[in-house]
Specification:
Pfam families: Ribonuc_L-PSP. By secondary structure, this protein is α+β, with helices and mostly antiparallel strands. The protein has one domain: 60s Ribosomal Protein L30, Chain: A (2-Layer Sandwich). Helices cover 28% and strands 31% of the residues. It contains 2 helices and 6 strands, in the order E-E-E-H-E-H-E-E. Helix 2 links the parallel strand 4 and strand 5. The longest helix has 19 residues. The termini are close together.
């Protein structure tokens, strides 16, 4: 697999993403459903967004690795949240740590939604290649 990132500007670097990702000679692609703060017994977390983001990341990492892929090869990540303001002010460091931990270079879209299932505040949807 060949992967190239494109960012004609530098400002997005401090936000831990790139403007575009090109992937060639892909062996396979994994489309991951939105991963949220859902415990292994299927119950939704009612914790604050910061705690929920940590669990959603753990769930995303688990799905990706158990499918035989690596988080570093996430090329597209969509973040759904009930408050972009809260995400940016209170959770962005967790997101940046996740990206740095895996050396990810991914395209990102952050969306505020009216609601997520039950008590959920954040959900992560990914595309992964190998």
């Amino acid at each position: 697999m060949e992967k190239r990132e494109f960012s004609p500007w530098k400002w997005q670097e401090k936000l831990s993403y790139v403007q575009a990702v090109e992937v060639k000679n892909v062996q396979s692609t994994l489309y991951v459903s939105g991963q949220a703060a859902v415990h292994s017994d299927g119950t939704s977390s009612n914790a604050d967004m910061r705690t929920q983001l940590e669990l959603a990341i753990q769930n995303l990492e688990k799905v990706v690795t158990e499918a035989g892929y690596e988080p570093k090869n996430i090329v597209r990540l969509t973040i759904y949240t009930t408050s972009t303001d809260e995400f940016i002010k209170n959770c962005f460091d967790i997101f940046q740590d996740f990206v740095a931990k895996h050396g990810m270079k991914q395209a990102v879209t952050l969306l505020q939604v009216v609601a997520l299932n039950e008590t959920l505040k954040i959900e992560l949807e990914a595309t992964v290649v190998k």
